[in-house]
Design brief:
Blueprint (H helix, E strand, L loop, with lengths): L1 H33 L6 H14 L14 H17 L3 H24 L4 H28 L14 H20 L2 H24 L8 H16 L5 H10 L2 H8 L5 H27 L7
């Protein structure tokens, strides 16, 4: 019995962390070398591999709500290209809002369709506005710190995916215990995949502008589905959503600091606030009876 439990835990670790990390490392390196600044494809590939291993019923074309993360990954790429290639701020924001809304609509409609079209559209619009706000805030943070994310940039160019990785890591145990083990595992796979991307991007200096946007779409979908699909309390969903904004806000507030000091302030602030929210979340969702 104990041997079976040990094997099960090992398989869960491999599917949730090890395989997504390894795939992200490999794809990030190859994409960064062949496609120059497209190493962000690594964390998308790593997450999708984790998704296929954790969610054994994954299908394409999608049939279930979880299946639509394959489409979300594609929408994330389209969103990044839109932000990178279109100069006009109004047009960029408009197209981004439509793409963000489409992603959430596809992820939430299979669950909310019984509540009617208005409910699904309302959720999609609100979520898209939140993501658009993050996108604009992160762009302002880069501008205020006079950072132009190009090739051969250091840690400053990776602050936003690092922030989202920390949020995912802090959210995973809360949602696993209080809502859905499946979504908790997917958050772990997401965090591991982004970690692999960050390592390669930092070492090879292959970083693209708006590199956190596809990751934001995936993470936003997981946090929202944790409430809509798995009944995680909405208060926890809102706290986790708010914690995503720590990195851009602190980045703006510390924009005049020396680069190395600013990076440390931003990352440490994100770790502290995410840890506090995770601890509060665990306290709120912890079952009265034993987990075993």
């Amino acid at each position: 019995m104990y041997e079976d439990a040990s094997n099960s835990n090992l398989i869960m670790l491999l599917h949730t962390a090890i395989y997504p990390l390894l795939v992200a490392l490999i794809i990030s390196f190859i994409a960064g070398k062949l496609l120059r600044t497209s190493s962000y494809l690594g964390y998308l590939g790593g997450f999708l591999v984790g998704l296929s291993l954790i969610h054994s019923g994954l299908s394409f074309p999608p049939k279930q709500a979880i299946d639509y993360y394959t489409v979300t990954a594609l929408i994330g790429i389209a969103s990044l290209l839109t932000l990178s290639l279109i100069a006009n701020q109004t047009i960029r924001s408009g197209i981004s809002f439509i793409l963000f809304g489409l992603s959430f609509y596809l992820l939430l409609n299979p669950v909310l369709k019984h509540s009617g079209l208005i409910t699904t559209l309302s959720w999609s619009i609100v979520c898209a506005l939140i993501l658009l706000g993050y996108s604009l805030l992160s762009e302002k943070a880069q501008t205020s710190a006079q950072i132009q994310i190009k090739q051969k940039q250091g840690l400053s160019a990776l602050l936003f995916p690092i922030g989202l990785m920390i949020v995912a890591g802090s959210a995973a145990p809360v949602i696993s215990i209080g809502g859905s083990l499946l979504i908790g595992q997917l958050l772990g796979a997401f965090g591991a995949a982004v970690f692999g991307y960050v390592i390669i991007a930092f070492l090879t200096k292959n970083v693209q502008s708006y590199n956190s946007i596809p990751a934001l779409l995936l993470l936003g979908g997981l946090i929202t589905q944790s409430h809509v699909l798995a009944d995680t309390p909405i208060s926890i969903m809102l706290l986790l959503t708010a914690s995503c904004f720590v990195t851009p806000i602190v980045s703006i507030l510390s924009s005049k600091a020396k680069e190395s000091r600013r990076n440390a302030i931003v990352i440490i602030s994100q770790i502290i606030i995410s840890s506090v929210i995770s601890g509060l979340g665990l306290w709120l969702v912890w079952p009265e009876s034993s987990l075993y």
